[in-house]
């Protein structure tokens, strides 16, 4: 029996399509000045980058439409280009994994929802991808993602290092706010909550008095071993934060007030890796809702050849509930770090869920005990603003992203794009690239008028979706080419799009 895993790719050359019928010739409600039919950068030489969203059970199509892909869905369900798309200097592949995520089907047995099985199927996908598209053989490959991809990626990279795929040139990996070790990640929650003003000093002292440090993660995740006193104290602390009215994934962001009952279901469940609604750029906090409505329209399903009959959701809770979470993947790192790959771990510092405190602990004394080769210092964006802090270890760099949430590209898109391109292409190269102006720059009086460059005028990417039958996965596909235009803005402040704007009002069930 064939299982299915939907995957999509943003690739910079239309000719990669093995079958013309798989190409998406237009996107319904596309609302931008130029047609989506332009090549971008140097697709014949640009590196290949695999992107994995986490969950487990969350679709990489959400990363595509909400974070770093070429398109963004507006409040009126029209589609515009994303000027911060990562595919402007890379061939991006967005993989929905495991089966049951996004448009993929069927839902698997619980025994198949493990990181070992997911790794085996992702490994097979890469083998089949290179066979179907041989022009990407021996191209530099980077594996990237966020959240529970902090498990997916080390498992997969370890497999590729110990059992290489022929003609696959694995070069590096980058993971944002990575779920890596439950004990260290989740044991840091209360430290983060208190240091960011989410709990009172009385509550924090009660946690210190009533809980042993070794049981904090047990109380957070509902594991046996959490004492009754600590459990009660912990529950009272979380109740005082009022998670129903804020998102711990981006503590400075607003929540979406549409579909209030539905959105609350995504807030701070025990399986806390489920992705939240987000706040991005000029769109507001309901982007996930708009994307879900857009992708489930019949004309959109027809356009992207998603004819499997199932609806799309940001995260499939049935997959999440069945998935056996790994407690840690730290044992994968020694082999990975000895392989000579480029490595990047980055943390949005406004994410409470997989926060930078826990991440620093597993990178250093409490986990991998890595040796610092370049001490902690600030790093800056092309807008000359402080973007965060960085520390470098042997074969691995850690960066914080100032003001970013769990989904860094969604909340600080310029920071994320610059961080990504400097990691892949090197600091010297990325310093020569032109970057779009951050919509929030006007707050500091920055000039939003950008110089005219052919690079930005021609910025584009091809989105390729196709069916690929393999033993563990059958893909649903489309292909689109997008031009990212530079917008010249003079004497005008950027503003958030009103949630009720547009001529067509979405219907919310």
UniProtKB/TrEMBL annotation:
Its GO biological process annotations read:
proteolysis
| PANTHER family with a match to the protein in the record | CARBOXYPEPTIDASE, SERINE PROTEASE FAMILY S10 SERINE CARBOXYPEPTIDASE
**What GO annotations for molecular function exist for this entry?**
serine-type carboxypeptidase activity
Tell me the protein's name: Carboxypeptidase
Q: Which residues cross the membrane?
A: 464-485
What's the superkingdom here? Eukaryota
Note whether Oxidoreductase occurs among the keywords.
no
